[in-house]
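Comment thread on ticket #2218

A.B. wrote:
> Attaching the input chain for the structure job we discussed in standup.
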Amino acid sequence: MEYVNRKEGHLNFQGYFESPTFDSYVKQLNKRPKKNKSGITTLFWDPQIKTDENGEATFRFNTPSTYSRLQLKASAVTEQGEIGSVKVVF
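C.D. wrote:
> Ran it. Output below, let me know if you need it in another format.
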């Protein structure tokens, strides 16, 4: 990585982008070189989950019975632009 002086750095916003669909996400993943051959698979994707007034959301999905471990990752952005994320392994 090349060093950039803070005074010379700048940020260009590209504007608003629609949330990707699951299909477009999978196509993008398939274009990447395979770094991890562990068989990790995305089982559920919904970029438009809405939370209730308490900031909570409920969703359901099925997992194959052969899975002994599941990793859950979630990222969120509030209407005020605050960012949050969580990663849990079951």
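A.B. wrote:
> Thanks. Noting for the ticket: The two ends are 36 Å apart (CA to CA).
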